[in-house]
Amino acid sequence: MKVLVIGAGFVGSAAARQLVDLGHDVTVTATSAEKVETLRESFPRAVVLRGSEEETVREAVAGQDVVVVTAGPSAQGSMTPEGRAKTYRDVLVRTAENVVAAAGPQTRLVALSSLSVYGDAANHLEVIDESAPVTTSADPSPSNFLAMEQVYASTGDRATIFRCGDIFGPGDPPIAEKVAMAHQYLGGSVPFSGDALLYRLHVDDAAEAVVHAVHHDISGIFNLTHAQVPPTNAKLFDRLSAEQGLPALQYRDEIASPSAPISVEKLRTSGFEAVRSFDPALAQPA
């Protein structure tokens, strides 16, 4: 199959490598010529593309059997409401609108969303599955992820949407280092909720889920993370702060996230499970 991967960064590159190894004709994209040159060391077909640019997306999507959208806002631009407002709509919603407008009637679509779309709206439930209520928060993060989901879902059973945990993998700083950076560069203040459960997703699990969607033609919305219940942000981050002689972080609650356990049973029933994503060491007490 001909597969276009929009946003060949952390997850996109990993998924593209697996798809190439499986014999697919893969084109990858990045937003700058410099990034594309690096991608061409691994992928012969790499092009410059911004998802918010309608004509460029139309040309890239034409003739593709599958379009995988792994482009997402940068972490650096996500730490304040102003930063999120500036980038999230273009990166998420405009890309989705342009992809859906350009895709043919048989084109399969696979996109990555976020567990943050639940916010705190489903915390009263015993477990949160894909039918749970989603947040009505106006914060640019969950609101734009939800708007993006609606665009892809409008295509019916041609779309697969993965609501992902916090993605990590080789080359990504360890959590303890991220906590230290929050103190050093953000004044010890983060936009998250302290009582939210820290669900994570290993990059290889994310990539394999994309391949699973392409090969097994699953459609709909799926929670994508580990089945084990993790610690809360505050429990883990404050322990890591204390171990480094740092004070507890301040949690601004701008981006509410689930504090009730996430169900991954729907995806498991389809034949896939994220097996690398839970680190038992993170849940151990100090």
Share of helical residues:
25-40%
Strand order of the largest sheet: 3-2-1-4-5-6-10
Mean pLDDT: 93
CATH architectural label? 3-Layer(aba) Sandwich
Question: What's the CATH H-level superfamily name?
Answer: NAD(P)-binding Rossmann-like Domain
Structural class: alpha/beta
Distance between the termini: 49 Å
Query: How many domains?
Result: 1
- Largest β sheet strand count, sense and barrel closure: 7 strands, parallel
CATH fold-type name: Rossmann fold
User: How many distinct beta strands?
Assistant: 11
Output the CATH class name. Alpha Beta
Approximately how much beta-strand content do the residues carry? 15-25%
Pattern of helices and strands: EHEHEHEHEHEEHEEHEHEH
Number of helices: 9
Task: Give an account of the 3D structure.
The protein is α/β, with parallel strands linked by helices and 286 residues long. It has one domain: Rossmann fold, CATH 3.40.50. Helices cover 36% and strands 18% of the residues. It contains 9 helices and 11 strands. The strands form 3 sheets. The protein has a 7-stranded parallel β-sheet with strand order 3-2-1-4-5-6-10, with helices on both faces. Strands 7-9 form a two-stranded parallel ribbon. Strands 8-11 form a two-stranded parallel ribbon. Strand 5, helix 5 and strand 6 form a beta-alpha-beta unit. Helix 4 runs parallel beside helix 5. The N and C termini lie far apart (49 Å). The model has no long low-confidence stretch (mean pLDDT 93).
